Amino acid sequence: MSEGALWLVGAGNMGGAMLRGWLAAPGLQRPITVIDPFIEQVPQGVTLLRELPSGDEQPDILVLAVKPQQLDAVRGVFEQKTGAPRLLLSILAGVETETLRQAFSVEHSVRAMPNLPVSIGEGVTALYSGTADNGVRAEAAGLVAPLGLIEWIDNEALFDAVTALSGCGPGFLFRFIDAMASAGEALGLPADQAMRLAVATVKGSGLLAAQSTEGPEVLADRVASPGGSTREGLNVLDAEDRLKHLMRETLAAAARRNAELAAAARAS
Ligand SMILES: NC(=O)C1=CN([C@@H]2O[C@H](COP(=O)(O)OP(=O)(O)OC[C@H]3O[C@@H](n4cnc5c(N)ncnc54)[C@H](O)[C@@H]3O)[C@@H](O)[C@H]2O)C=CC1
Ligand SMILES: O=C(O)[C@@H]1CCC=N1
């Protein structure tokens, strides 16, 4: 049975990834309309509008996937409408549910933090809502379930940390893959082969970590034969907790920026 319309406002890197994830998975029966002034095209079966419909037309579900700095333009159009979407799901980094609830006059807003692998159904989406009842929570979870793992976050204050870890995380891991490949190249491997080896190694290790009942520390020890070469390499990463410090600084910088975006959204 067809369900109410879903409007996806902004289909750039992340909105586009969610759209691809939804279309690749069976089950989403809703008509989808993308509102984006700039993207070139949308997949077959999806309606593309260059601007939000004026007048009182409203979607059943509104998914906000613009940059936080673009929120005001979207909010401005909804302020002119009577009524409100039944469910608001926002993926905007740093913008709080209460800010959204007031801006869009919705009863419930659900904040989501997906990550780029949602495009292949292998992402993780963190969810938070301070007001949604079980029915709304189940609906929000059902919407993002085809995109990968779901993690509910109890405390919105932790959302900046979640964003830094899993939202930004693919960006950090892509850098890691690059660094691994170029280190292989520095040891004499052809660049394309080094990249294939690095990508396959990260993919396989991620899958193994996800499936294993043992933690990454134990798995690392499985690779490191006593007196062997992995241990020598691990000693470099572990010296003075180098890698740990680097990741802490990396995530802290990202979390700080999320907090700044939240403050700016509250003030606007
Ligand atoms: N890129 C990522 O991996 C992740 C991004 N996010 C969040 O997703 C949101 C979008 O980020 P990206 O996709 O990376 O940015 P992006 O710049 O790739 O996409 C934004 C899209 O919004 C469109 N847009 C601009 N003004 C608009 C308007 N007034 N109405 C409708 N559409 C408009 C742009 O044409 C563009 O396609 C941000 O709020 C970000 O915090 C969340 C998780 C991960
Ligand atoms: O960089 C950003 O602001 C967004 C939030 C999480 C990933 N990308």
UniProtKB/TrEMBL annotation:
Family, as annotated: Belongs to the pyrroline-5-carboxylate reductase family.
Organism lineage: Bacteria, Pseudomonadati, Pseudomonadota, Alphaproteobacteria, Sphingomonadales
Naturally occurring in which organism (per UniProt): Rhizorhabdus dicambivorans
What GO CC terms are in its UniProt record? cytoplasm
Domain Pyrroline-5-carboxylate reductase dimerisation positions: 156-261
Q: Name one GO biological process term.
A: L-proline biosynthetic process
This one is known as Pyrroline-5-carboxylate reductase
In what pathway does it function?
A: Amino-acid biosynthesis; L-proline biosynthesis; L-proline from L-glutamate 5-semialdehyde: step 1/1
Note the superkingdom of the native organism. Answer: Bacteria
**Function statement:** Catalyzes the reduction of 1-pyrroline-5-carboxylate (PCA) to L-proline.
- EC number(s) per entry: 1.5.1.2
Residues reported in the UniProt entry to bind NADP(+)? 65-68
The top EC class, named as a word, is oxidoreductase
Q: Where in the cell is it found?
A: Cytoplasm
Identify the coding gene.
proC
Q: Record's InterPro entries? A: 6-PGluconate_DH-like_C_sf (IPR008927), NAD(P)-bd_dom_sf (IPR036291), P5CR-like_CS (IPR053790), P5CR_dimer (IPR029036), Pyrroline-COOH_reductase (IPR000304)
Identify the Pfam families for this entry: P5CR_dimer (PF14748)
UniProt keyword annotations, A-Z: Amino-acid biosynthesis, Cytoplasm, NADP, Oxidoreductase, Proline biosynthesis
Q: Which Gene3D superfamilies match?
A: NAD(P)-binding Rossmann-like Domain, ProC C-terminal domain-like
What is the catalytic activity of this protein? L-proline + NADP(+) = (S)-1-pyrroline-5-carboxylate + NADPH + 2 H(+); L-proline + NAD(+) = (S)-1-pyrroline-5-carboxylate + NADH + 2 H(+)
Keyword NADP present in the record's keywords: the answer is: yes
Write out the GO MF terms. Answer: pyrroline-5-carboxylate reductase activity
